[in-house]
Amino acid sequence: MKKLAAEFIGTFWLVLGGCGSAMLAAGIPELGIGYMGVAFAFGLTVLTMAFAIGHISGCHLNPAVSVGLLIGGRFPAKDLLPYIVSQVLGGIAGAGVLYLICSGQDGFAIDPKSAGAFASNGYGDFSPHGYNLTSAFITEVVMTFMFLIIILGATDERAPAGLAPIAIGLGLTLIHLISIPVTNTSVNPARSLSQALFVGGQPLAQVWMFWVAPVIGAILAGVTYKWLGSGK
């Protein structure tokens, strides 16, 4: 239960910190943090939680990460579903708190026809810069693949001790710097679902892709690193 609670809290923080920075701080004229600030916000949520709860639950905060670690031989199958449920619920809770905060501003409303509404992910008309399904799918598969390679490598027993949170946090920052214009960056099904539930409409209809593509990328990374890291 403590592991599941840690995953809930960690995913709550990831959504509140990452999506919250996009909603509250990114677009302020002259003072806004922009894409770079949002990218660092997501990276910082993972970095801080890795130090805070990594020793409790492993700090997955992401169903795709749990799947990739399972395939890579680093995570027991019996814990997969409970972890995913905790991550999804933590993400929804984070989105709920963000909604309550945003609702305190006069005129706030979520437009389900607007790309990136409530920091949601999307493709086609719902991509921040109009990238189609193929581009979005490739982006999410490749970015999740690289994220899992970073995680599996940085947490390898042969890697420098104590530095994994920094590598993983900066890795997620770089992933966002590359892919925010394409999909608003998911690489995390729980993060995508949490926002889409509040938006509805097409962002919710498109959320399937932000489960399928990251999981495929994670599986490929798990298989690849299991081979790559096998020689000791």
Automatic annotation (TrEMBL):
Site note Involved in tetramerization or stability of the tetramer, residues: C19
Entry GO CC: plasma membrane
Pfam family, one: MIP
SUBUNIT field: Homotetramer.
Family the entry assigns: Belongs to the MIP/aquaporin (TC 1.A.8) family.
UniProt note: domains: Aquaporins contain two tandem repeats each containing three membrane-spanning domains and a pore-forming loop with the signature motif Asn-Pro-Ala (NPA).
Gene3D superfamilies: Glycerol uptake facilitator protein (1.20.1080.10)
Native source organism of the sequence: Persicirhabdus sediminis
GO molecular function: water channel activity
Motif (NPA 2): 188-190
Subcellular localization: Cell membrane
Feature type site, description Selectivity filter: F42, H176, T185, R191
Keyword field: Cell inner membrane, Cell membrane, Membrane, Repeat, Transmembrane, Transmembrane helix, Transport
Name of the protein: Aquaporin Z
Motif NPA 1: chain residues: 62-64
Reactions mediated catalytically: H2O(in) = H2O(out)
Main location as per UniProt: membrane
Membrane topology: Multi-pass membrane protein
